[in-house]
Design goal:
With 280 residues, this protein is an alpha/beta fold. It is built from 12 helices and 8 strands. A 4-stranded parallel beta sheet has the order 3-2-1-4, sandwiched between helices. The mean pLDDT is 95.
């Protein structure tokens, strides 16, 4: 955060663009480019953190919120500084009570230490962060449904176009919605630089990425691997310890209940949306 505040907001955005940090929620849109979509000169603008991780078998954001809430809060502050937000909303899935407790404590600590609130680190930068949790609606993982829920309405997606959140989002003001994992990458990028980040991963998918592996494997868990160069075989057999009890692989689901099933012949595909799409 200190390193970010020593730069101009545009320079922070440029660093994130250069790192080509793709959104870690699902759509994979470049974070720095998304930040640039706010209409110039329109304030207030808001940052909304999508912590409504509701896809079955997906629990990487939950671990980030439970194990390192300060990293997430620092990422929120860096994004707010870059975009020009003085208000952020951290929306956490209703069932994640432990994550909510951890974030609440971390937020209180950060306020007490002067990292959140008025005139952060003696600068003229001020931000308030609100922790808000949902009631467990799967659809609220979709960004406009999440915004509806934040406003106190039933969590249902808005029609778009005409309005995309960056133009008219929360309270019909410019709103950037970022995923927990996306924001948690920012402190590392600012400290180590865009080039260091983009030295990991494939040409179209820079950096590292978290993958949750569950099912009939010896070592289920969340693994941070290079994005786009690691294969499903690496993930299932090296990191997750292979199949348990001498079982043979029948199929696996690459991400989300709506994804098609993959079979043994797909094991050597890289963990990267573009390559998967090209393979049909």
């Amino acid at each position: 955060l200190k390193a970010a505040l020593a730069k101009k907001p545009d320079a922070v955005t440029e660093e994130v663009k250069t790192a080509t940090l793709l959104g870690r929620g699902g759509a994979g849109f470049p974070a720095g480019v998304k930040w640039g979509f706010c209409p110039p000169g329109v304030f207030p603008r808001y940052l909304v953190v999508n912590g409504d991780e509701s896809e079955p078998g997906t629990y990487k954001d939950r671990l980030l919120m439970e194990r390192d809430p300060h990293q997430l809060i620092e990422g929120v502050l860096i994004a707010c500084y870059a975009v020009g937000c003085s208000q952020a909303f951290l929306y956490v899935r209703g069932e994640m009570a432990f994550a909510q407790e951890r974030i609440a404590q971390a937020l209180n600590d950060a306020y007490a230490a002067g990292y959140v609130g008025k005139n952060i680190l003696g600068s003229d930068f001020s931000v308030d962060i609100v922790l808000h949790w949902g009631a467990g609606a799967y659809i609220v993982g979709e960004e406009t449904a999440l915004i509806e829920s934040l406003e106190g309405n039933r969590g249902m997606p808005r029609l778009k176009p005409p309005y995309f959140p960056a133009a008219q989002g929360l309270y019909l003001k410019p709103t950037i919605v970022n995923n927990v994992e996306t924001l948690s990458n920012l402190p590392w990028i600012i400290n180590n630089g865009a080039e260091a980040f983009s030295s990991f991963g494939a040409e179209t998918s820079r950096g590292t990425r978290l993958f949750a592996v569950s099912g009939h494997v010896n070592n289920p868990g969340v693994f941070e691997v290079e994005f786009g160069t690691t294969t499903y075989r690496d993930l299932i057999f090296d990191h997750a310890g292979g199949l348990r009890e001498g079982r043979e692989l029948k199929c696996f689901i690459p991400g989300g209940a709506s994804a098609p099933w993959f079979f043994e012949e797909h094991l050597d595909l890289p963990l990267e949306t573009g390559a998967i799409g090209k393979a049909g």
